Amino acid sequence: MSEPVIAADGRPLKASLNRALRRQKLRALALIAPLLIFILVSFVMPIADMLFRSVQNEIVGDTLPRTVVALDGWDAESDDAPGEEVFAALYTDMALAVEYKSHTRLGSRLNYETTGIASLFRKSGRRVSKFDTDVYTEAFQAADPSYADPAQWAEWMADDSIRAKLPVTANTYDDWSKMIIEAEGDVPGEEEPWDFVYTALYTDATNGAQLPVAVDVSDIAPVSLQQQFGDIDDKWLEPNIWRTIKTYAPKYTNGYFLNSVDLMKGASGVEARPENEQIYITLFIRTMIMSLSIMGMCVLLGYPIAWLLANLKDRTANLLMILVLLPFWTSLLVRTSAWKVLLQQQGVINDVLVWIGLVADDNRLELINNQTGTIIAMTHILLPFMILPLYSVMKTIPPSYLRAAKSLGATDWTAFWRVYFPQSVPGIGAGCILVFILAIGYYITPELVGGTKGVFISNRIAYHISSSLNWGLAAALGTILLTIVMVLYWVYDKIVGIDNVKLGG
After folding, report:
1. N or C: which end of the chain has fewer CB within 10 A?
2. Checking phi first, is residue 337 left (phi over 0); if not, alpha (psi -120 to 50) or beta?
3. Sign of torsion, CA 154 157 162 168?
4. Does the predicted TM-score (pTM) go above 0.85?
5. Which helix (H) or strand (E) holds 117?
6. Phi, psi dihedral angles at 14 (to 5 degrees)
7. Cβ of 25: how many Cβ atoms within 10 Å?
């Protein structure tokens, strides 16, 4: 059996080589670590957050926990509103939510699904503290003074045997104590419980629970919380509001994705949205068609320009390249605004066409606030992203190839089509990918020149992020758009082959 080869440091040579290799890998990892961290923070984490927001729906259950549980026993397909038990749960949840100021955020969330809920929650939040439930408070305190003692309440709620007998009261008191500390900054043991805590105590008592100090609750006239909410707004007595709350009660929902494809969650399952609300499928299709059109226009316009730059003398080509790059040195907003001036019916382009007699003065072309305006403006803006990859690839094609083809009897067209064009295809592929991906996510230019029929799905994403604040729907739309791009990229790879895409020799 042969002895292992020993290195100069006395270790086996194989172990020394492995150790040196590990050091090299660690040094390489240290060099690329800043780039990996940057990609993680600026790319991976935002996408992960977007994916999470597209299904996140915790606000309903967190704001109305008792109401959500009480609604489990209510039939969502019923034509009647739920019973008193649900309204009692809503009263407690709403009283707490008002102090945390979370009822308005919840109303905004549910308003995305049913119009009018936001104002309903705001109105109810202002009036829930004025409910007639103080009759329970007064009745218990009149029956025994200990019910008005904050310290006694704290002692009762610290006793496990009492808590077990008063489950509703204990749960309500715990949340009240938490709210007193977090929202009010006070000490629960020094504050008299609020009316909704006594309402919970009355609920336990009427359910046969043994009270810490006996009170005859049969003499207390019950307060109808259903009627109290109905007095605020009769929408609370409509089942549609409660269906929305129950439907969107889970912590995670597919509702945003359904809305993104013009569907909705109904009482009996997934339903199509009303025809006048179906916009997103149309926008997705329009975005794909217009992005492909812009890409095609860039190929048709960019290819001859790139060929000219690649075959001119360097001095002339460099001068023309400055003109190609000039738009990069001008603000996008300025370029788009310039197109608004050029394309409008009283603009420069229409004036020229009228002047040369191609268009009648009373029949000027509509080139703005439609798809035509968007395609023209975005083709101009994205054209350099097609020219540059084409130019870099064409620059590597030796001119001698064409001369050799002609010397063998090929015509100019045959030499170009059979020899030159196939070698420039990798540049076309690179330019198409760049232009298409940039076009599909553009929203500033379509917003300014597209009107109502020339906007992209990205414009709706921007609207939901900055105006309607419906980040869940924006995240769902963004996720679908990302998926579409990845699918198209996969199809492109299968048909053309991503290895054939080049940015230069």
Report:
1. N
2. alpha
3. positive
4. no
5. helix 117-127
6. -60, -45
7. 10
